[in-house]
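Predict the structure of dTDP-4-dehydrorhamnose 3,5-epimerase.
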Amino acid sequence: MKATRLAIPEVVLIEPKVFGDARGFFFESFNQKSFNEATGTDFDFVQDNHSRSRKGVLRGLHYQIQQPQGKLVRVARGAVFDVAVDLRRGSPTFGQWVGAELSEDNQHQLWVPPGFGHGFVVLSETADFLYKTTDYYAPAHERCILWNDADIGVDWHFDGEPQLSAKDAQGTAFKDAEVFA
Ligand SMILES: Cc1cn([C@H]2C[C@H](O)[C@@H](COP(=O)(O)OP(=O)(O)O[C@H]3O[C@@H](C)C(=O)[C@@H](O)[C@H]3O)O2)c(=O)[nH]c1=O
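Done. Here is the predicted structure for dTDP-4-dehydrorhamnose 3,5-epimerase.
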């Protein structure tokens, strides 16, 4: 497994070692010890999620203002561009974003710590998106920043009008959003 800290160093790109053979492949999609060493964290994951989306679907930018979730995300089918936004006021990278393409071909994973907004757009015909979270879903604390907020300025690596949920279409501007202390 290879771990690379991105321009926001708390966000870590994880490249598992994939063992291919005549039958197909095998890899450890999660190993607590390796993950802790790679990220310098020690979280317990409490929820596993799986969503499927069509090409052009964009989910985000999501976070929970209480019970903030760290997310270890990956793609089992298809390809997405995945984005993390630093929402920790006082952080040297507050309001900045990083992103990576995650796909069934590269098997890359992204560690998005608590305190970050998260979203992705689907680049393939369909994508199965899998992620582990460090805290439980808490809809009362859910918040959404508008995907195309100009102050954040994410380059989604996707041309065209994305398909959003009604909730995401009404996301908050970054300047008005509740953020982490
Ligand atoms: C996220 C979530 C949703 N749900 C339900 C609520 C709703 O009826 C349905 C769809 O929810 P949403 O529209 O919020 O799903 P979605 O837009 O896929 O939300 C997810 O987006 C990505 C980008 C994230 O980072 C996740 O943390 C999560 O916010 O699933 C749960 O039961 N548990 C969960 O953990």
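Residues 2-176 form a domain with the Jelly Rolls fold (CATH 2.60.120.10).
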